[in-house]
């Protein structure tokens, strides 16, 4: 059953590249990366580049993701963008990234409503969860993971849970954070098991096994294989290294070659 899940490499470009630069970068990646049936490669450019890239992208090669969305479909929310407005551009949306949680103070309720908006709009939510360094120091790792998981999924039914992707991203491992250090595979194994155990409690064991769980945090071409080999980890969310074509293409090639079925 495990091997029925897709593998993913997701690039989070964050607030980098103008539309012109994003378009040139996509062109570069398109020339270097061959489509693969085994691997779904997803690019998350800035909101401002989504329309341009959606016209340019070969969707058999890459899918697009938004880095955020609003929880409503329309309305008086100055400066916000809804999935109803962009769902023709994207197949995925990143929700609850730690930069949204801790820089923009997004609440668990907002995150849950965004997950719900994604499902309602036919866009796959990539729900990011992960403990901070302080949670870990205080022995609160499991409760932080559980609470973000359960809160984020609280409006997701049994019928819809396999449409959600979970990205485990310990905040202390994200490269842009001061003092970031790469996670140890053992930490990721424990988190993956905890996440699946909790999914099984709510949705049942068989359904829990269908949910894709990714890892993200300081992944580069030298560390990607080690993370991809972890049983139960279905791919990677890559930040900084996804901005460098040689790094990103190398990670994609590694992912094509790694098998980690349980
Ligand atoms: C991220 O911010 O989601 C991320 C994984 O970043 P980095 O790879 O740079 O740690």
List the helices and strands and how they pair.
Elements: E1 7-12, H1 19-32, E2 39-44, H2 50-56, E3 63-66, H3 83-86, E4 92-95, H4 98-103, H5 108-120, E5 124-129, H6 133-137, H7 141-152, E6 165-168, H8 185-203, H9 205-208, E7 212-216, H10 224-228, E8 235-238, H11 245-257
Parallel strand pairs: 1-2, 1-8, 2-3, 3-4, 4-5, 5-6, 6-7, 7-8
Helix pairs in contact: 1-2, 7-8
The protein binds phosphoenolpyruvate.
Sum up the structure in keywords.
single chain; about 260 residues; alpha/beta; TIM Barrel; 8-stranded parallel beta barrel; 11 helices; about 40% helix; about 15% strand; globular; binds phosphoenolpyruvate
Tell me about this structure:
By secondary structure, the chain is of the alpha/beta class. It is 39% helix and 15% strand. The protein has one domain (8-261): TIM Barrel, CATH 3.20.20. Helix 1 packs parallel to helix 2 (50-56) and helix 7 (141-152) crosses helix 8 (185-203). It is globular and about 45 Å long. Bound molecules: phosphoenolpyruvate. Phosphoenolpyruvate binds next to strand 8.
Q: What order do the strands of the largest sheet run in, or round the barrel if closed?
A: 1-2-3-4-5-6-7-8
Sheet of most strands: 8 strands, parallel, barrel
Please write the string of helix (H) and strand (E) elements: EHEHEHEHHEHHEHHEHEH
Which blocks of ≥5 consecutive residues have pLDDT under 50?
none
Q: Say how many strands there are.
A: 8
Q: What is the general shape?
A: globular
Q: What value does the average pLDDT take?
A: 96
Category from helices, strands and their pairing: alpha/beta
CATH architectural group: Alpha-Beta Barrel
What is CATH's topology name?
TIM Barrel
CATH H level: which superfamily?
Aldolase class I
Number of structural domains: 1
**Number of helix segments?**
11
**Approximate helicity band:** 25-40%
Strand content: 5-15%
End-to-end Cα distance:
9 Å
Question: Can you tell me the CATH class?
Answer: Alpha Beta
How many whole angstroms does the radius of gyration measure? 17 Å
Q: Give the cofactors and ligands.
A: phosphoenolpyruvate
């Amino acid at each position: 059953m495990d091997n029925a899940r897709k593998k993913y490499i997701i690039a989070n470009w964050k607030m980098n590249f103008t539309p012109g630069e994003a378009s040139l970068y996509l062109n570069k990646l398109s020339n270097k990366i061959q489509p693969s049936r085994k691997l779904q490669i997803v690019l998350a450019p800035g909101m401002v580049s989504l329309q341009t890239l959606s016209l340019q992208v070969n969707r058999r090669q890459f899918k697009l993701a938004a880095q955020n969305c609003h929880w409503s479909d329309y309305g008086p929310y100055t400066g916000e963008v809804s999935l109803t407005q962009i769902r023709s551009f994207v197949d995925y949306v990143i929700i609850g990234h730690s930069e949204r949680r801790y820089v923009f103070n997004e609440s668990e309720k907002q995150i849950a409503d965004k997950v719900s908006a994604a499902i309602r709009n036919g866009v796959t939510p990539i729900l990011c969860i992960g403990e901070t360094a302080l949670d870990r120091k205080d022995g609160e790792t499991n409760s932080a993971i559980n609470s973000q998981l359960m809160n984020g999924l609280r409006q997701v039914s049994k019928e819809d849970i396999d449409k959600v992707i979970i990205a485990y991203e310990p905040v202390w491992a994200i490269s842009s954070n001061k003092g970031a250090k790469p996670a140890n595979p053992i930490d990721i194994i424990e988190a993956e098991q905890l996440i699946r155990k909790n999914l099984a409690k709510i949705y049942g064991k068989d359904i829990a096994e269908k949910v894709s769980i990714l890892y993200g945090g300081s992944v580069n071409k030298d560390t990607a294989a080690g993370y991809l080999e972890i049983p139960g980890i279905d791919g990677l969310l890559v930040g900084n290294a996804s901005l460098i074509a040689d790094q990103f293409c190398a990670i994609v090639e590694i992912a094509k070659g790694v098998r980690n079925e349980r």
